[in-house]
Specification:
Residues 11-538 form the FAD-dependent oxidoreductase 2 FAD-binding domain. One of its GO terms (molecular function) is oxidoreductase activity, acting on the CH-CH group of donors. This protein has 554 residues and is α+β, with helices and mostly antiparallel strands. It is 32% helix and 21% strand. The protein contains 18 helices and 20 strands. The protein has helices spanning 19-30, 63-67, 74-85, 93-107, 110-116, 151-168, 235-241, 264-271, 329-337, 350-356, 366-369, 373-381, 387-395, 405-414, 423-437, 445-453, 457-462, 537-553, and strands at residues 6-15, 35-38, 56-58, 145-147, 172-175, 178-186, 189-198, 213-226, 254-255, 276-277, 282-290, 300-304, 310-313, 343-349, 358-359, 399-402, 478-490, 493-494, 501-503, 509-515. The strands form four sheets. Strands 1, 2, 5, 6, 7, 8, 19 and 20 form an eight-stranded mixed β-sheet that branches. Strands 9, 11, 12, 13, 14, 15, 16 and 17 form an eight-stranded mixed β-sheet that branches. A hairpin with a 2-residue loop joins strand 6 (178-186) and strand 7 (189-198). It is globular. The relative contact order is 0.19.
């Protein structure tokens, strides 16, 4: 049966109501334009992926950094970004321009622009992606990871408020359960979109919703912005794009984003002539743990680890220098994929878990998300793990807790996949590591690094445990954590110029079509290159959404 589309007309159409889409819509509203936002999910999911995020943002030479004694500069950040990105393709021309523009934004007005909107930041700056290869290699030379006070919901709040104000004033129309299947083109220009209306679905935030079609729609628009996210919730697309440089794709993965992050707009965009580039560049984590209280299928949570846990592959071989916890996400992923196995192990102590294990996600950090200073002091500075971490210790299937090393090794061997472990090798590594840590001198690079890291006040205060023997009874019990690959971000996407205008395969602008956020590789079709410095995904949504929204309004 052919359904008669419900028609709409607007100045600017935004496809996808995540952070980039909301920022773009807000810019268009501020310029006096009428805006329609469409999304395939229920209104419960307003804000998209960003709602679930930890809220990390990348700033350069911020007041928070200076107060912590961190000396940063645009020049140092540029060296880090380009050393990290490894741009090496002809199609990196626009991504490189986006990288330079984003660095200027992050060192300039980004923080003030957010502060004007009421966004605040936790005073202790985190040090993510530390690298370890040399001064011009991958990694952040200094701490740059600023946690938003309120985490992901805190970043979204001012942009959701602006959208809701526009809706009350009749200048913004929000169409939930509207899934775009076609971009409308007229004489080579994109003039809107059409698609299917899905049935109402009484699902909670992040939960999979019905795909039953009950109607059709069309939107005529002067400008159309694609801000539909990436492919992390679609394992089939992730495996299809998986590059050989990262080894073979895992047969088992956890999912770090809701199922609606399905990449469905990729084919729709390509059919309208948009040039998708760098699809083989992606960002997945290797510290994924099975969520004991899942919201979406195969729901995984990432451990944000400090540097002290011993890391073993599935066979019990210790990971090589500098693949320590928190140093090089993609390098560790590539190394572990070469082993032919889908999991790895942390061996650690309760004292390390208490100090060094944070969990990614707004829902896993109720103190920061709820802006509860009392709870924060109690949970972060008092003895014992945070409540969410303790819940995983109590309920998580990937956590094994024992009082002594032999009992722990037995439990590890009995766990699924544990038959691959060379228990004698793991035992020797733990004993040798404990022997080294009792000496002021060491040849163990990980021990040297964790001692060095405690020279930074932020790490010593809340992120790095006092060096100790894993088998020290006062630091126990011992803990093993089985780790999985966790899907997260697409680093490639629709190629755009610095105004967010979508380009075709010849490099020409497609009139009327724009892209922002993860759908555009956070700008240009791949602003991060091969690797991200962390704190740059939300920031990329902010910057690319702003650029596209302002240009579309013009």
């Amino acid at each position: 049966m052919t359904l008669t589309p419900t028609p709409h007309t607007t100045d600017v159409l935004v496809i996808g109501w995540g952070l980039a889409g909301l920022v773009a819509a807000g810019e268009a509203l501020a310029a006096g334009r009428r805006v329609v936002i469409v999304d395939q999910e229920t209104r419960t999911d307003f804000g998209g992926q960003a709602w679930w995020s930890f809220g990390g943002l990348f700033f350069i030479d911020s007041p928070e950094q200076r107060r912590m004694g961190i000396r940063d500069s645009l020049e140092l950040a540029r060296e880090d970004w380009f050393g990290n990105a490894g741009f090496d393709r002809d199609e990196d021309a626009w991504p490189k321009r986006w990288a330079e523009a984003y660095l200027q934004f992050a060192s300039g007005e980004k923080r003030a622009w957010l502060r004007e909107r009421g966004v605040g930041f936790f005073p202790v700056v985190g040090w993510a992606e530390r690298g370890g290869y040399g001064a011009i290699g991958p990694g952040n030379s200094v701490p740059r990871f600023h946690i938003t006070w309120g985490t992901g919901p805190g970043i979204l709040a001012p942009f959701i408020a602006a959208a809701e104000q526009g809706e009350r004033e009749g200048r913004l129309t929000i169409l939930a359960r509207h899934r775009v299947t076609t971009l409308t083109t007229t004489d080579g220009a994109v003039t809107g979109a059409s698609g299917e209306i899905l049935e109402s679905s009484a699902t909670g935030r992040g939960e999979p919703s019905s795909r039953q079609v009950v109607g059709a729609f069309s939107v005529d628009a002067g400008a159309t912005i694609i801000s539909s996210g990436g492919i992390g919730g679609n394992h089939e697309l992730v495996r299809a794009a998986w590059p050989s440089r990262l080894g073979t794709a895992p047969s088992h993965m956890l999912t770090g984003v809701p199922a609606y992050v399905d990449g469905s707009m990729q084919a729709v965009s390509a059919a309208a002539g948009a040039h998708l580039i760098n699809g083989d560049r992606m960002w997945h984590y290797v510290e994924g743990i099975t969520n004991w209280n899942p919201v979406w299928p195969s729901h995984g949570i990432r451990i944000l680890p400090g540097p002290s846990s011993l890391w073993f592959d599935a066979t019990g071989s210790r990971l090589p220098v500098p693949l320590f916890p928190g140093f090089d996400t993609l390098g560790t992923l590539a190394h572990l994929r070469q082993t032919g196995h889908d999991h790895s192990w942390f061996v650690t102590s309760r004292q390390i878990v208490e100090k060094e294990f944070a969990l990614s996600g707004s829902e896993q950090n109720p103190d920061l998300t709820g802006k509860d200073l009392g709870l924060l002091v109690k949970s972060r500075l008092a003895k014992g793990p945070t409540g969410p971490v303790q819940a995983f210790l109590d309920e998580g299937e990937d956590f094994l807790v024992e009082d002594d090393l032999e009992a722990l090794l037995t439990r590890m061997q009995q766990a699924p996949g544990g038959e691959l472990l060379d228990i004698e090798r793991v035992r020797r590594e733990v004993i040798a590591r404990d022997r080294e840590i009792e000496n002021d001198f060491t040849k163990d690079a990980q021990i040297g690094m964790l001692r060095s890291m405690r020279n930074y006040r932020g790490d010593k205060l809340i992120r790095t445990a006092s060096p100790h023997r894993l088998q020290d009874p006062s630091a126990g019990p011992l803990i093993a954590v089985k780790l999985h690959v966790l899907t997260r971000k697409s680093l490639g996407g629709i190629e755009t110029d610095l105004d967010g205008r979508a380009l075709d395969s010849t490099g020409s602008v497609i009139p009327g079509l724009f892209a922002a956020g993860e759908a555009s590789g956070f700008g240009g079709g791949g602003v991060h290159g091969y690797r991200a410095l962390e704190g740059t995904f939300l920031g990329g949504c902010l910057f690319s959404g702003r650029q596209a929204g302002r240009a579309a309004a013009r």
